[in-house]
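Observation: inputs received (chain + zinc ion).
Thought: call the complex predictor directly.
Action: predict_structure
Action Input:
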Amino acid sequence: MKPVAQPTPDTQAWFDRIDQGSLTVPRCQDCDHRFLYPRMCCPACGSRAVELVQASGRGVVDSFVVNHRGPQGFAEDAPYVLALIRLEEGPRLMAHVQVEDLTSARVDLPVVVTFTERGDRRVVQFIPAEVA
Ligand SMILES: [Zn+2]
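Observation:
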């Protein structure tokens, strides 16, 4: 059984939007800083005027690993690509990248977001932009 994230008060709204099939990024209304992970205060200026704005869903692979031995719940998926994705809006997040061919995974690979069902929740994943 694969785990799903357990939202905190700071992250509940962000995960709720993911469950609705929408990737958002927190944005500070005072200094325009966009950041992840989601939190109630802007990490740049300390403002509490934070809103969730729609992300384009596009990004690039900043770094990745081909995991040949997944942890519990993911072992049957191995080998798979786990990557640090830099979103078009700037913030980065860790996610699986679904590739047909593991050798196609590379730094700067353009990717787009997709969502996969996991129980009654959704999980963010990415696919190469050329197959989207
Ligand atoms: Zn700010």
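Thought: report the result.
Final Answer: Residues 28, 30-31, 33, 42, 44-45, 47 surround zinc ion (CB under 6 Å). The two ends are 28 Å apart (CA to CA).
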